[in-house]
Amino acid sequence: MKYIIFLRAINVGGNRKIKMADLKAALQSEGYLNITTYIQSGNIIAEREESDHEIIQTEIEALIKKHFGFDVPAVAFNVSEYEEVLKRNPFDGDKLMVHFLDRIPEQAMINKLEQLSLDHQDKSSHAGRFLYISLNAGVSDSLFSNKFVEKVLQVRATARNWNTVLKMVDKANGK
To answer: How far is the C-alpha of 98 from the C-alpha of 85, rounded, in Å?
Structure first.
């Protein structure tokens, strides 16, 4: 099965550095196939027989710890689930960010997020393991930081801009 995998906060500000060639080699050594990476921020496409995204996430996190010595959260989607991100996007325009969640949050947590963000200039919409953010202020001024999203929804998450979202679909489909 082909997966799109996102690592959180690698190669940011000189911290948790991982060269993509080294990451690719580590994945290959652990049985992942047909590995592609996109830019240096932990965007991976790889194949594995496993069909459970939670097992993939756990494997990738253990692999990073084993090969690179630090903890890095991973969020994985099979390609068909990931393609839903395009279909479910409720916003127009390209000033978008998507938080990818390691699991579906509890409804009470989603309600809490909606309440906390009622008066904010950025708008959010939740669908499954995706949290869409329409950015009016820009990423640095947004209420919806990764830390905020994780705290309120009680999940692990990592965010990508809309251009990266689209590029990963194209790469997964051989474009």
So the answer is: 8
Domains of the chain, each with CATH number or no CATH: 2-78 (3.30.70.1280), 80-172 (3.30.70)
Q: Between the CA of residue 137 and those of 95, 113, 121, 125, what are the distances in Å?
A: 10, 18, 7, 17
pLDDT digits (tens, 9 = 90+) for 96-110: 999 999 999 999 999
Residue 136 · residue 95 · CB < 8 Å: yes
- As a whole number of angstroms, the distance between CA 130 and CA 113 comes to 13
DSSP helix/strand/coil, 90: coil
How far apart CA 153 and CA 156 sit, in angstroms, is: 9
Whether 126 contacts 115, CB under 8 Å? no
Q: Are 71 and 101 in contact (CB under 8 A)?
A: no
Indicate yes or no: pTM above 0.70: yes
| 50-64 pLDDT tens trace | 889 999 999 999 999
Q: 């640095």: which residue's tokens?
A: 140
| Rounded-to-integer distance, Cα 101 and Cα 54, Å | 11
Residue of 26, 31, 27, 36 whose CA lies nearest to 4: 36
Quote the tokens at residue 157: 């998450």
